[in-house]
Design brief:
Chain A is of the alpha/beta class. Chain A has 7 helices and 11 strands. A 9-stranded mixed β-sheet of chain A has the order 5-6-4-3-7-1-8-11-10, with helices on both faces. A two-stranded antiparallel ribbon of chain A has the order 2-9. In chain A, a hairpin with a 4-residue loop joins strand 10 (about 195-205) and strand 11.
């Protein structure tokens, strides 16, 4: 059965999955880039995000790499797609990632405001889903053709899927930084009550990696 | 200058420093014992808490041991001293630790309800402070005679001292368990805004250890 997975989702020591004040210059919120210091040097991120041949191997790389294995579709909250709020003023915003986004597969963007699909270079198509998280998951599963679906975030989208017990597995990284404010992934989410447990725990110099699984 | 330190304070992956429903059988709240699985096998905890000669050495032990180095007095919230709430019905409750408590030095217990000092075996005296956290700190500093003062907790007491920037250093351990509910150490506390930063980060199989310091 195709799984719904969260991968490489990183939060700070004080529990924040993104910094405050997301805007065009701070897609991850203020301070949010420091969260991902474990991921940027990895071979996976270097190749996928920056087009570089090289990059570090090791435990951090192993966790970064698993996030792209056997994935057939993505689901994103609208704020992960861009900083535009409310009805789309026009179709000029085409994502944070340029004309050839990192996904190279169908991406389902949750929004309250309809918009035609956006076909990008390299195999990425953004589909805008206004019928809610269950509909988005069904469409993503179908598009994934038997592979897994990855929820990219943000915090609110992951929380919504968690509360309905729809997520099968989460890879979480805790970074040794303090953000002070922002959004907490586990705010108002009682993971043991929902049936989740930590089944793996491995730490490096740069992060503590966890695998949480629905039992 | 004598420091005010938090040591071996442990919280769960979902951020809870104690489980819910503290009572006589669950001094750390339900599930709270699992939090401290990193500490129990250490030589320091085996010796200090259980009177055993042996115990594990290594990184976990190093962090456990530093918590008892150069400490001249402790400060505890009343709930750490016991499960009794409201005015003391009598003087029968003498702490969780039996007649010879683990402290072996003056311990200042924050409470709204006065009570005479309680002299125990082995050098521990519990002093009940009703004049607030600053007064407790002054008295503890004086009693410590130049050594540091350790705040044992709980969450609310640490938060009160943090918000007044009175804590110099915190050793925090994050345990690979989920508690689901309880008290969050960093709820409503913006650490970077208060001047704290993570200056050390070291992980083991059982916990991720952090040192936070006021800059």
């Amino acid at each position: 059965m195709s799984k719904l997975r969260v991968e490489s989702f990183t939060f700070s020591l004080d529990g924040f999955g993104a910094g405050p004040e997301q805007n065009l210059n701070n897609p991850l919120g203020v301070g949010g880039n420091a969260l991902h210091a474990w991921a940027f040097p990895t071979r996976t991120f270097q190749q996928k995000l920056f087009g570089n041949e090289n990059g570090e191997t090791g435990v951090d790389e192993d966790f970064a790499a698993r996030g792209f294995q056997n994935i057939g579709a993505w689901i994103l909250g609208r704020n992960m797609f861009g900083p535009v709020r409310g009805p789309w003023p026009d179709e000029s915003w085409r994502g944070w990632w340029g004309e050839n986004p990192v996904y190279h597969m169908p991406v389902f963007v949750l929004t309250h405001h309809p918009r035609p699909p956006l076909v990008m270079e390299g195999g990425t198509t953004f589909h805008f889903v206004t019928e809610g998280i269950v509909d988005a998951l069904e469409r993503a599963r179908e598009a994934a053709g038997g592979k897994d679906v990855r929820v990219g975030g943000g915090v609110s989208v992951i929380q919504q899927y968690l509360k309905q017990r729809l997520i099968d597995e989460l890879h979480i990284a805790i970074s040794p930084v303090l953000l002070g404010a922002g959004e907490r992934l586990f705010e108002g989410v009682n993971l043991p009550a929902l049936g989740y447990a930590c089944i793996k725990h491995q730490a490096t110099e740069r992060a503590t990696h966890l695998i949480l699984s629905r039992q």
